[in-house]
Amino acid sequence: MKRRPFIIGSLTGAVGLTVATRGYHWMSRRGPSVESPSIWVHISPENDITITVVKAEMGQGVATSLPMILAEELEADWKSVRIKLLPEVDDYLLPDARLNGTVDSISVRSRYRQMRVVGAAAKEMLVAAAAQVWEVEPSTLKARNSTVSHPVKGVLTYGELAQLASTLPVPSDPVLKRPEEFTIIGTSPLRLDGRQQVDGTARYGIDSVVDDMAYGAVLLSPVAGGEVANFSALSSVGRKDITLVQVPNGLVAVGKSWWDASNALRSLDVQFTTPPETKDLNSASISAKLAADLQGPTKQVETSGDPQSAMKGASARRSGAYEVPFLDHAALEPLNATAFVTADSCTVWAPVQTPVGVIQLVESLLGLPSSAVTVHQTFLGGGFGRKDTPVDFVSHAIIASAAVVRPVKVIWSREQDIRHGAYRAPARAEISFGVDAGGNLVSWIAKLAASKVGYFWETLSLAGFWRLPYAIPNRDIQWVEFNSPVRTGFFRSVNQSHNIFFVESSIDEAAHACSADPLAFRLRHTQQNPRATAVLNKVAEMARWGRPRIEGAFQGVALFDYTANDDTRTVVAHVAEVTVDSAGKLKVHTIYCAIDCGFAVNPDGVKAQMEGGSIFGLTAALLGEITIKDGAVEQSNFHDYRLLGLRDSPNVETEIINSGSIPAGVGEYGVPGVMPAVTNAIFAATGTRIRTLPALKQKLR
Amino acid sequence: MDILVNGVSHTLDIDPNKPLLWVLREDLGLLGTKFGCGAGLCGCCTVLLDGLAIRSCVRPVRLVDNREVTTIEGLTDPLGKALKEAWLQEHVAQCGYCQPGHIVAAHSLLRREPHPNQEQIESGIQNLCRCGTYQRIRLAIVRAAEIASPAGIDRTKGNAE
User: Fold this and answer.
1) Backbone angles phi, psi at B144, to 5 degrees
2) Residue A377 belongs to what H/E stretch?
3) pTM exceeding the 0.90 threshold for the entire prediction
């Protein structure tokens, strides 16, 4: 076994550093990106092709789908394609900052054209190299399976041509293949990281190993904003082989083993200050604030016709208030980071969705120029948005390493991970609608109190709540920003994780208000939206709408389509089939899902995302809730922050509609619609309308 | 103390109360076994102890003294290979973090029950997957069972069918 001498200084002073809690931006260090094949493709003399992946692989399959796109245009032999994970920094950043980071389901849609152009350019350079070698016209050559061939001259491998090719000019406008010529795009090969995933050799952030590394365990203030009050007393009673390092809102114990460091933390009597503004916080007061925000001034973001008059003239009117709680991401790989800080450099190994954010973090923490910072991209054991907020877990490693002057791997315990999330914020909506005697929605008045997400806030914060896919002549949509007193952040499907629940529940209520079939009602109001109509019809056919396969089962439907006028959008329809027994016990038998993401680059990967996204959404709908008591998060591990397991997870049957040739996003879009689909099915089964989540906290009968 | 992991014996000078998980990861460099919850709830840390699945994050290393520990890295018997192949062919893994634990748990299940029904799979696999890959895990277990002991030569059920 490996043994290394373990020497650690007895540093005891507080390391006082201020960390911005949100708001880093994604900018390149060196300006606009260069689309040179040399930074994307490496071809070995043995003809192995290594393709660079700069989007974080966290389960969504980008480490396969992005190389597929490049390999297609390169005419690469797929069997010889390997991957190299690199952080998305410097030359790899796109000029439009909104497209950087592995967030918002942007990876394939933002890189599709670039990967094709790079692959096609590299292929043209290899062909040009062969033309030089053989002294023939490039047009007489054919590239296929990592080789270039000529009817008379024979065959050269890319490996034989790569060196010469790399000296030739990069074509600025290479010819792209026609979609009907694709042989890789549109197929579902085994994942390029698949073998590593099943044999235990895939390396996640938590598996980073650095010579002479120490381990850090973390304890943060249970109450948001608290600081360690007795740090100097603690350091004087500490063990010699444990170093305590103060970090914002808590401390890190550094030792020779993570288990040892965790035990040391547990033995300490750490006192935290309690900020007056947070100590009386609880879930009820936060809920009251949401309701009060909705009663105060709101901003009108969409209006059409005369909704008030239309409401008065409607033959049926209803109003409903909906609310959802905080949610934690609970990725199974706990938050962790490894850092090595020297006097003039900082190296970080971390499972992060946005490595450029780590560089900015180091700059703000240590004052080092970005050129002194190196970030190593690892696989992520789940991210779901939480690992896009590195300010806490990555800074712990940086601060600890700076303090003990050696590499430190900091791992949060599950308890710290759940108690100190960057939670999906709670939100509340009040929606009133009116339907006429013909069963038409004539008025829609809706108000939302929700967190403001990112600097392109309108798209993300209001997504799913405005620009509805339904034809409603009279509309008044208002919103007010909810400032959460507990830290919040990005979550898989962001505010659509509640907005779709609010809207699709109300649409269902509207259908029932006029005794219409919920599917027919949606179809009636999406006649101008052929893609929405198509996924609704498809999912209805898959689910045998109205004729459930399970005896005594009921169905609920929901539509996800938040930007009804954007050609690169994704449209998803879900049907949930459930039974609720006489005691009110719910069973979700099957989820049906139809998706139109424009064009599926990797159809099985799209299905996998719909399956997983649906289980993620179902977990939120049925079980997910973080509650606050006396300023502290009450949940701490999987016994009280429960996830659906194998037994309670239904199969998700998915079909894909390719409506065009441009791929849109996928990773987040299985999540939102399943929530109202299942609560709408509960209503069909029981007459109980679920207006707050999680559903299983309520009596269903 | 002595510990036998994947067929190799190690003599370690460690705290006997240290959980097996951290001994594997920190002292033996076997990083395929993952930390998920530290409380035996999620199953990311599942390993075999004398062929049966246990949660290594809550098992003090003193309790495995001189017993046989098998981690995902050591799962190279025909059943282990069948499971890994089935996992690959069914495209089970998304982020993959929990999958070593699932594969090890499935190994333990299929050793006891070579052709489990759905109920046996549901009671036998208590691991969590945040990516929600459960339906493919069910398929992969059935496929692995077919690869490892094809129907017809099932040693527990005789040469049926």
Assistant:
1) -65, -40
2) strand A373-377
3) yes
